[in-house]
Amino acid sequence: QMSINYQTESMGSTWKKGDPVPYAVLCRTFEKCEATTKRLEITESLVTLFIQVIRLSPDSLLEILYMCISKVCPDYEGLELGIGESLLMKAIAKSTGRAMKALKDDYVTIGDLGTVARNSKGSQRTLFKPKPLTTSHVFKTLKDIAKLSGQSSQNKKVDKIQGLLVACQENEAKYIIRQLEGKLRIGLAEQTVLSALAQASVMYKPGFEKKSQQKKESELSTATDILKSVHNQLPNYDMIVPALLTYPIEDLLSKCSMRPGIPLKPMLAHPTKSLPEILDRFQDQKFTCEYKYDGERAQIHRTEDGKISIYSRNSEDMSVRYPDVMETITKWIKPTTQSFILDCEAVAWDIEKSCILPFQILSTRKRKDVREEEITVRVAIYGFDCLYLNGQSLLQESFEKRRQLLHDSFIETKNQFYFAEHMDSNDIADIQTFLDVSIQNNCEGLMVKSYDGEHATYEPSRRSRNWLKVKKDYLNGLGDSMDLVVMGAYYGRGKRTSVYGGFLLGCYDPDTEEFQTICKIGTGFSETMLQTLYDRLKDLVIPKPKPFYAIGDGAPAPDVWLEPQVLFEVKCADLSISPIYMAGVGQVNDAKGISLRFPRFIRLRDDKDPEQATASGQ
Ligand code: ATP
Hints:
19 helices; DNA binding; nucleotide-binding; ATP-binding; cell cycle; binds adenosine-5'-triphosphate; 34% helix; alpha+beta; EC 6.5.1.1
């Protein structure tokens, strides 16, 4: 099949082998995905699209994949869309000739700027049909827009967006605007897109259709497992996609293996509510306990050619945020240690007393434009895992071996680098004592890890039961705190009227892509924190709740609704079923959700994205 007729409402055209992919083709797939909530149907639409692209215009596969997940490059390169509403409205106004006031009114009624743009285009009469947009042109422009930074860039951004909008036909404006907002919200979770890509890479081959059903299913599931595993180790589509188009999928792991310089998604832990639960979980397996340091996760990389970088839990490059650490790293590496990936925690550090300071101190350290001479909060690094060493991946090694290699390859250096404190006893009394001492040392509790054998490998991006976290405050309670998105705010009373005094919080449901209300919170904030929050949140005010906010009928509406951008870590006494809040609605009760009892603010979670908030299933 060497060409495909693509038809939208009023235009018909042909996309031939080697042609650039018409953007209308991508938008038609987006429409199909948006029209259903069934994961299978969404995957099917994507598979069909990817197969067509691989057959006709494989060079466009990479940009199409990025556009499906609303990204323009790997996370660690730091280019993001997420253009603000006012800028987008300006561009819509300029490209359609409509007044800002009319656009704002429409937005308040409709709630989705993409639809506002589409409708505004629809009501516009044009003499000539613009040249059809191609995916390459749209992607390149999106990337150029993401690259523009600083105040003076605003007008240039508006011009570029306007340029795209003028050329839009049918529903294209809707998706361009949503892509610029940074989220399509049509059910295209990255995992769904990955499985579709894996399936397409097998199904496009001649002869696939003729195979038996059983063979087809097994090939598709193997391909999906391989691609997900490759992506966990090397989250970089710039490398994965060309390899996928060149080599058979079975060879992909060897062609696209992890390497220093590309941060992998860290392994995460499961909460525990009691110490006996640890023994129940591990039974006759060997495990080891470590202090759970209360700081910021850091992945330190050194490439084969000596380049050192530090990445956050979210794969952001933090090297410029830690110039002090960057300078000392070479002092604590053994001469035989060349390339490596180290998993560690950066904690606030008291140089005089050589001890850990609480997390609250770390959070006062500057996050941007850090100049070495201005640093007031020092940090020390606690290394707890080694994922790669001298050209070899250690992911499949047991933790026993990885810890041994970690200790053999680095040198504890006063006030700079230490190995995580550990204790290997399975006696409850010993664990209790170790936990108590960890807390006295300003740690959060313990991490309990599977130690040897096949359960003790490193599982990138997984919240695994082979790692348990024990937070002292949560024993016999909920087991863990929650990270919740601020959806709205209430003005304070009394002397707090100039700031927000309370906040409406929500968790995230990855299946429906909704933020679901979970509680109102007004406790645990210092006056300074309330001022900080006001300064940050006041620019995120939106005229009405987002269409993807699930709000119960009886909930007290906040004084202002907010863009979902800021996360609070919150403690609470208990959970209760609630007719007012919507968290997990349908999972515990058809009409009611879950709310938190006595929620209390602990800290801001700047190292997580809104979609990484506590999931409603959790
Ligand atoms: P979440 O809130 O999603 O659970 P989290 O960042 O709190 O995320 P957890 O999985 O709860 O992550 O706990 C693991 C975190 O604890 C790691 O991300 C790391 O930052 C920190 N940590 C401190 N000490 C250790 C250790 N010895 N081993 C592993 N992780 C540690």
